[in-house]
Amino acid sequence: MVTFVTTNPGKAQEAESYLGESVAQHAFDYPEPQTDSFAEVAAHGARVAHEHVGGPVIVDDAGLSIAGLEGFPGPFSSYVKETLGIDRVSRLARREPDQSAAFHTVVGYCDGDPVDGDGVTVDDGTPPVALFEGVVDGRIVAPRGEGGFGYDPIFEHDGRTFAEMTTAEKNAVSHRGQALSAFADWYGDRT
What we know:
alpha+beta
């Protein structure tokens, strides 16, 4: 069993669908370092969560990077959404010539043991953390759609915003799903 340290129970349910085993959710809100690297945030979170839980954990860090805004808001996406709102982010991004964007997720795993393997980014900190990334490309548009959450109404992928997709359609291309799938493959070989 692995524990998903998150305040969002839906993330733990999604992880369980990839791992095919029971995933426990543990609500623990750890402080995140102020950095423009999803990987650094996930690695830090995995170490702190592992120490707090005392066993194997996964965490994730996710966000939206807008090319015309030089990757902003990136790992600061949640804060920017809460302070500016998605309408303002959309208007700001649509003023730029390049409105391409990407959703990123990095899943970090820590159990205190050394990690290695093909396709795994190994952080050299203590304790070691295995990192798995998922990315989905799209572009920023005016808000459309009624579904999803967060930036979904302004993120268009293959002609539709994430908010215009069903949950199943979104999950089929999801950045979090990609990262969880890569983790599940690696974790399955490890256990």
